[in-house]
Amino acid sequence: MNFKDVELLSAYLDGQTSPSDLSRLETRLASDPELAATLQALRESRGLIRQLPKRRAPRNFTLTYAMVGKKPPLPRSYPFFKFATGFAAFLFLFSFAVNRTSQLAASAPQAAYGIGGGGGDAAEAPMLESVPAEAQAPSEAEPTMEMVFDAATPEPAAGGDTARTANEPPAAKNPEAATAPAPFQIPPAWMIVFAAIALLGAASMFIVQRLAAQKWRGK
Amino acid sequence: MNEPALIQDAQRGNLDAFNTLVLHYQDMVFNTALRILGDSDKAADASQEAFISAFRAIHSYRGGSFKAWLLRTVTNACYDELRRQKRRPTTPLEPETDDGDEMDSPRWLADNSMNPEQQFEANELEHAIQHCLDALPTDFRAVVVMADIEGLDYTEVASVVRSPLGTIKSRLARARLRLRECLQDFWELLPAAFRLNIETSA
Fold first, then answer.
1. Cβ contact A50–B148 (<8 Å)
2. Cα–chain center distance at A95
3. pTM over the 0.80 mark
């Protein structure tokens, strides 16, 4: 008896043999005690396995939406909240950037003059600071950089007026700068409105999401 | 229970319909996982995983035996669990010999303080059979569980474990022989009435 016979016997037990194999096997079983004993052994094994009690599930395995990774269904108005919040946040950031850029552009000439007044070199700054206040008043012997700049433009006043004009902002001295249009600024009230819409929208989205999730978990 | 309608609803994402199927099949799924894994807690985890996977993949069900399709899912979940166990092995419950070797014989399950009839009451016998099942290679065990415990025919078993019919026949024959050898240690202690019961039921 080889393993092929065992395979045949096992299939015979389950009624899975072909008709030709069946008649041949039954003939052999009637004449071969070893084959019959193996069939009995297989039958007993199968019988024991079938004796195993059917265990019941210790708990219900029903699923929740959260278990299957589905997102809670959100109300139809949710995309509107999402868009409004995003758009308001964009407008707020945009207006903030515009205003800031305008401020920087307006202060740039002043900064340039400030550096010129210091001699245009950071290394010279401590030396200039150490000069007494009286010495900083312009004199003919030691002209300041502002005076050098002023020399290039028509002098509105001479002599004693130099000290006054040195302390004035360059724009006041430059007729072209004085007549330049004011930089574009988005009114702060608008920015407050954008920020408020963005915050309210975000809060609404959060509340809607929480309510939907709570309702969902209760299912 | 209108199974095809419930399956169709579940395929459209209706979780309530799927849960009706879960309630119907959960005992069978748990029992299968228990016999393959041999541990109640792990079987419960594998069953839950199997149902979650089944819901996610239910759109891939294209008719045929839903029971067999579900059993394939739970068998895969059990294989995953067994792979995890291999990666993180645990201390076996089997006692050790004086030399520190693990006892191979299932005789250790027998309680010497009891007489032979008491020793083989149903619970003990279940442990012994489960012990012998656990000793089988995973592929053999799955085939035995499907064919002899869940009562699937060979074609269904082949579709569950995704193997050819010839392989199923061969594995089942080998598994039955091995089980027979393993159960020999208990066999002589089986009550006569129980033996008769087996022989008549087979």
1. yes
2. 21
3. no
The mean of the pLDDT values for chain A is 73
Residue A60 forms contact with B (CB below 8 Å): yes
What pLDDT, on the 0 to 100 scale, is given for residue A64?
86
pLDDT in tens, A4-58: 889 999 999 999 888 888 889 999 989 999 999 889 888 888 888 888 888 899 9
Which phi and psi (to 5°) does residue B98 adopt? -65, -25
Letter for the amino acid at B105?
Answer: S
Residues of chain A with Cβ-Cβ distance to B15 below 8 Å are 63-65, 68, 70
Q: Which domain holds residue A210?
A: 78-217
Tell me which residue in B29, B34, B201 faces A47 most closely, judged by beta carbons: B201
ipTM: 0.74
Structural domains present in chain B:
1-89 (1.10.1740.10), 106-202 (1.10.10.10)
Cross-strand pairs, B102 = B96
Determine contact: A42 vs chain B, CB below 8 A: yes
Beta-carbon contacts below 8 Å between A and B: 127
Tell me how far apart the alpha carbons of residues B7 and B3 are, in angstroms, rounded to a whole number: 6
